[in-house]
Amino acid sequence: MLTYDKHYYDGAWQTSTATETIAVVSSATEEAIARVPRGTAEDVDRAVKAARRGFESWRRLSVEERAQWLEKLAAAMKTRAPQIAEAIAHEVGTALGFATKVQAEFPIMMIGMNAKFIRDIKLEEELGNSIVVKEPIGVVGCVTPWNYPLHQIVCKIAPAFAAGCTVVLKPAEMAPLSAFFLAEAAHEIGLPNGVFNLVSGSGRVVGEAIVGHPEVDMVSFTGSLQAGRRIASVAGDGIKKVTLELGGKSAFVVLDDAPFDKAIPAGVNNCMQNSGQTCSAWTRMIVPRSRHDEAVELAKAQLAKLTLGDPFDKNTRLGPLASAGQRDTVLEYIEKGKNEGAQLVAGGGKPAQLPKGFYVEPTIFANVDNKMTVAQEEIFGPVLSIIPYDSDDQAIAIANDSPYGLAGGVWAGTQERAMDVAKQMRTGQVDINGGRFNVLAPFGGYKKSGIGREIGPLAVEEFFQLKSIQR
Ligand code: NAP
Ligand code: MG
Predict the structure, then answer these.
(1) Which residue in 138, 182, 225, 303 has its CB near the most CB atoms, within 10 A?
(2) pLDDT tens-digit readout, 31-54
(3) How close is the Cα of 231 to the center of ligand 2, in Å?
């Protein structure tokens, strides 16, 4: 049992003003594996003040010095990759192999990449009689979710540090451990005081205290639409910049000339990744009505290959969901799907062979109408809706008929045809004909999927203020 009883700020482990702790529960065993402090507004105030003091010297370091700190931090985290993967396999239920690559090694690599980004960014530009200077925005309050815990943290802190900002982080209650490992790594390398500050606790108490604190200049949030609304209004009240990475209900449009044997399995894998607990998951598969039944058969065959089980078992592709609450929400959505007339063709409940752990069978609904709840709301579990269409224009209209616009996919017989559809989708990312995730490309949402972008060199720009100096 890992026990943390302190927050980390001002370059040191600090006793919490709280007496209560939060249990971190394993998704597979349902047992507590760790405890962290349930912080208070007082802890936040101290951490924010440390971040403010830290900012005054951090912003004055040269770009090269900050870049080197990022590289040192990446190196210190690298030695912790196995520990991170194991913790997240417990917290989120991610299968260990996938957790190692995607939950641990990938975000660690991104820390180091931000060193390169900042070295390459031009911080001053001449415009007529002005010099336009990019300056760090200040103290950034970061609030993150549990589904890709370290990734979401790194998407904020690495570009913030690169830009010259300092950070106060509140990780998700359900998956806070990688944030503590990050604090240990920052401490080990001697990262200057007040640059990285961590307060654990609930969103309502610690999260709101960060967002509302007058010394926080910008809020960077990833999480649900509901919390995002609240955070945007609290931040708006303080006239703070806010970036929001919210939910999704992304569409995968399969055109009639696509190679179905490749496209459909790729679509299923995308939807089911991390047991569907992925904001960008293609949860709506939009297929030509004439090939609907063929798509269903291929999807079922692919699903059968995604073994559900203990995240620590080598054969497992899909682990349990992150919490009992998450499992129950997903099961309720599955019931709604059945009641509203979607055709259940695979899964649909709790797996009988896995009585312990928050498991839900990967599930496919066919002949779904896009107006149904399962096609409109973010389920955040392993549930795919297959939706038939009659023309390309209708396919695009269905894809865009969503309050969200985070990601999406198109597969067609040619690049041109796929590109044409991709450009008509109102969404921040589209992968065409199997295009792979690109760590240089900005990531973020249209519509209710958010405001602002993360990942890659363009994400660093979010953490700048512009100053115009006229001569
Ligand atoms: P959530 O309930 O919105 O929580 C996210 C974080 O916000 C948690 O740390 C939470 O604290 C905190 N929080 C909640 N209410 C708050 C408030 N009023 N003020 C300040 N902080 C508050 O989301 P989740 O259930 O953890 O994560 C799932 C959601 O995140 C999904 O909707 C998913 O699509 C979205 N997501 C989006 C992206 C993206 O890049 N667009 C990436 C990943 C996930 P607690 O720890 O107490 O809950
Ligand atoms: Mg939550």
Answers:
(1) 182
(2) 999 999 999 999 999 999 999 999
(3) 14
